Amino acid sequence: MKVQDIYNIVDEFAPFDTACEWDNVGLLVGDKENTVTGVLLVMDVTNEVIDEAICKNCNLIISHHPIIFSGIKRVCANTVVYKCIRNNITVISAHTNLDIADGGVNTALGEKIKLINLRAIGTQENIGLVGELAEEMSADEFSKHLEKCLDIVPRYNRNIDTKIKTVGICGGSGADIAVECNRLHNIQAFVTSDIKNNQFIDCANMGLTLYDCGHNATERVVLPVLQKLLLCKCKVNTYIAESFNGQV
Hints:
By secondary structure, this protein is α/β, with parallel strands linked by helices. It has ten helices and eleven strands. Strands 5-6-8-9-10-7 form a six-stranded mixed sheet. A five-stranded mixed sheet has the order 1-4-3-2-11, sandwiched between helices.
């Protein structure tokens, strides 16, 4: 199995040409003709991740966040790009294309928190989904539900009178589409991460409860999906990284 073969599998699931224009996805480091000895699935490429890949004999890393996001002027010994090249490790990054894919980040997040009737919010770039809870919950009950599902204690703008049934979601940083989601779908709650103080306040004034569940927790849910996909499609050892990915 070559790197190109793995690339094709990911591309079929989450086409790279659907990524946002500002994004940087695809084969970013390495050689598409390399024979794959093992695959390590990660959120971010860090020094710890590369060490783990070497330890597990994985010469292909598939990351969610691009190892190269903007132009770089030099590749020095203290950079992860240099370390990957030095150790003959190829990196494929699948970012916003994986967010919006059917079965990708947002689908996995919605299923993880047990939403039903998942559908697109309808924003221009189609990032984010909306769905319903099987049973209505209070704001505090939904917080406990998220804690149980995602193994994280969310931050939220608590409204004691809120009854939550319809929920918008966006893995990673998506608070900027919460208001539009509310306008289109009359949601009572929005689940995402990296929420700013003014966003909490503005949405609270609208009666909309925002839940910040952490960048890592809202996106890492897709890694088991990718692992299952690759294990079904090819006979290559595929692991989810155990090391710190640089996220909270």
